[in-house]
Amino acid sequence: VQLQASGGGLVQAGGSLRLSCAASGNIFSINTMGWYRQAPEKQRELVATVTSGGRTNYADAVKGRFTISRDNAKNTVSLQMNSLKPEDSAVYYCNLDQHLSSTNYWGQGTLVTVSS
């Protein structure tokens, strides 16, 4: 399984970015896809996840500003990030969790920088 993320970049505070991630390979229909982020000298943290059934989960810090969505037919997941803040700056990682097979995969990471 491979995950290819795209969409990071530099944006001013208050702006928007959209991240996308495409999964390929042996993917089971029941899974959870999501986004995590890691800022310098901090641990990787959950941003948002969405199950193949459409159930979403958000970190408190991004609720109301970020929206996660997925296309099951294309095995893609997207993260629409609005009202960005400097503290959102981090490397964002796409994740695929296939709990039925106990396998978990990470994308290569895409850098998001929010200037104040």
Poorly predicted sequence stretches spanning 5 or more consecutive residues: none
* Share of helix, binned: under 10%
Q: What quaternary form is this?
A: single chain
Q: Which sequence of SSEs, written as H and E, runs from N to C?
A: EEEEEEEEEEE
Rg calc? 13 Å
Query: How much of the residues is beta strand, in percent?
Result: over 45%
Report the structural category.
Answer: mainly beta
Gap between N and C termini, in Å?
Answer: 37 Å
Mean pLDDT: 96
Q: Give the strand tally.
A: 11
Commentary on this structure:
The structure is a single chain. The radius of gyration is 13 Å and the shape is globular. The strands form 2 sheets. Strands 2, 4, 5, 6, 9, 10 and 11 form a 7-stranded mixed β-sheet that branches. Strands 1-3-8-7 form a 4-stranded antiparallel β-sheet, with no helix packed on it. It has strands at 2-6, 9-12, 17-24, 32-38, 45-51, 56-58, 66-71, 76-81, 90-98, 103-106, 110-115. With 116 residues, it is mainly beta.
